């Protein structure tokens, strides 16, 4: 949990705007609760908000490759521009952090409800976190907020992870407490809970993941019997370009995370959201299990000869926002892969379990895999090119059957010879 910044007294801000920031400890996705109390000229609260946020940005490098950068508003945070609004300007909540990054949201209301309107986010690729960025300088994205309307004089609460994706940026929000247009300067005691929280059995329940400890050679055997992790459910995923499917994927997914303690995590396709992008030479499949785990598969096309093209899995990125076994959350990726290599226009298939190495502490296991990220025809898979494991199995099966038949023929022949000899012996005796 984030702790409140140990300031001796509230900050005095221009335009009588007060902002308190509660920032937490280290980690890829740090605890970074931001608490905001915006006051008007009479020192009455007009906007109150406390939330967790993080940003995942894909950027192009000087080598024309793509990498991911994570931004957290955890250091060097300022708060210029937050205002209660007036007859001509909407109320605005704004923060600035890091090396030239900023985020803001304004609010609108009707006679009965209020809601967020426009979110603006500026990130500066001159920051050191964007290593070898091809484009340097500030980049701004603007997107409409997805928060539903909330009754006036009501506090909006949502612990569930919400994400907004625009262009190559993913904005993550969770543990949100918010009230805009606060009446009489007093934050309401009435709550409005988001639908995602209502559908969750309990805040600590991970509805769509199965976790269990892994026993390794270097780890002592458990003193109690634990239920083994079952094979993950097989999910069918697809992306559309207009009304046509442009990417197809079928697989069971399991994460192998070795932080403080090794853990296996099964991804449940029934509660996994699918997004991504299709292209002629690059495609991305993004799976969000809605419990703060995000998996990105990036595919690319290569030319193997003048008239031959193949596709392959080039990059995998994993974002674990919620901690596992009390360890720090993480964001990790491998952009130097060259697996699932298949002729363009075909699909890749591997029924055997495969392991994709992301880092030494993070692997992805796939089961009953079939993937086609390019040139999908008639909304269905093209002819599959099988992995070596399946090909070897398919090759060995007819050999085994043939050997069995051959052995049976030899037995029949031996029985026949023995029978003939006995018959001859009987004739000679007579």
Automatic annotation (TrEMBL):
Keyword Aminoacyl-tRNA synthetase: no
Protein localization: Cell membrane; Cytoplasmic vesicle, Autophagosome membrane; Endosome membrane; Lysosome membrane
InterPro entries, per the entry: Lamp2-like_luminal, Lamp2-like_TM, LAMP_CS, Lysosome-assoc_membr_glycop
Disulfide bridge positions per record: 158-194, 350-387
BP term (GO), one: establishment of protein localization to organelle
Domain Lysosome-associated membrane glycoprotein 2-like transmembrane: from-to ranges: 397-428
Domain Lysosome-associated membrane glycoprotein 2-like luminal: 233-377
Keywords: Autophagy, Cell membrane, Cytoplasmic vesicle, Disulfide bond, Endosome, Glycoprotein, Lysosome, Membrane, Signal, Transmembrane, Transmembrane helix
Transmembrane segments annotated in the record for this chain: 395-418
GO cellular component, one term: late endosome membrane
Signal peptide: 1-33
Membrane topology: Single-pass type I membrane protein
Similarity-based family: Belongs to the LAMP family.
Protein name: Lysosome-associated membrane glycoprotein 2
Source organism: Gopherus agassizii (Agassiz's desert tortoise)
